[in-house]
Protein: Trans-sulfuration enzyme family protein
Amino acid sequence: MAKLATQLIQGANGTEDDRTGTVVPALYLSTAFRHPGLGESTGFDYSRLTTPTRALLETQLATIEKGSAAFAVSSGMAAIDLVFSAFTKTGDHFIASDDLYGGSFRYFDERQAKYQINYDTWDGVDVDGLLLKLQPTTRLIWLETPSNPTMKVIDIEAVATAVHAVRPDILVAVDNTFLTPVYQQPLTLGADVVVHSATKYLGGHNDILAGAVVVNNADLAESLSQQLTTTGQNLDPFDAWLLIRSLKTLNIRMHAHTANARYVAQQLKQTAGVDQVLYAGIGGMISFYLNTQYAVDTFLKNLQICSFAESLGSVETLITVPDVQTHHDMPEAQRRALGITPNLIRVSVGLEDQADIAEDIIQAITHSKE
Ligand SMILES: *Cc1c(COP(=O)(O)O)cnc(C)c1O
Structure:
């Protein structure tokens, strides 16, 4: 098989349009497809089931995550909802790593309140402690690594091996939004389900809202397919096409994000006003604690190149304050226990010149001293 960089660029350039010789795949917007005869199908019937453009994207997503099937959906939250709707029911239990996307916690709390699907959290470190939390009704382990926003790294393989040794029926699901298959392929580490907010690195340009679920097991794929046909949170053809286009640069973008993030992390460590820098050493996400003698609001207002905006993973550098934005729905005590304080700043380091990014952040810090 082609190496990842080649697969990303060439993999979805279908050959079905040999008539025109098109180099990039065609975009099909049709919602209906003619049948050759009664009981016959071209493979395409109605666009909630599948479309030629989405099918190309899904084959590409499955290939790059080393899965057998992928499902492209309308957002990262739709991907999370697809997994829970397909694999959990009232009375089930699941365990989630404790430091993850705030919207996922909002979703978990809703599931618990409305459907009695209860959950416990786990610190992401102590695997024996995780095993002690398993209940007969546990159906799913939900991991996000590096964690968001404090960048703790979880050993996916250790978790999957330990959990499956005692309970092969439990699904290990990994939200792989932060590292992407360029740096981490959870299915090869023993995970059962991979989820993405493709709005972030996979899309990479702050212009597509999308999500993905990838599995490498035919039964799991069948459950997801049936659920998706029933509820219809599919990705539309145009965004699917745009995502195919974006994936072509994923490999080069991720390596450039890492190079820029390493540089910015290094510069911030030497900056007066920065108490601590959190960085997993790979990928484009950094967090840092602004010293309390500096004003967070002034810092944000002084940014000139970087944007104060709450997303991540794109070519533009975006800066957020998780305590009041992405993680605000989490109870305050839990935020504080995790180290999510009012002066924790999260940076999604983009692909502008690394010196420009660092200089912009540092000048904004310097000018925010009270
Ligand atoms: C943004 C995000 C989500 C939610 O995805 P949307 O595309 O915004 O619905 C889920 N997980 C992680 C890690 C995210 O960063």
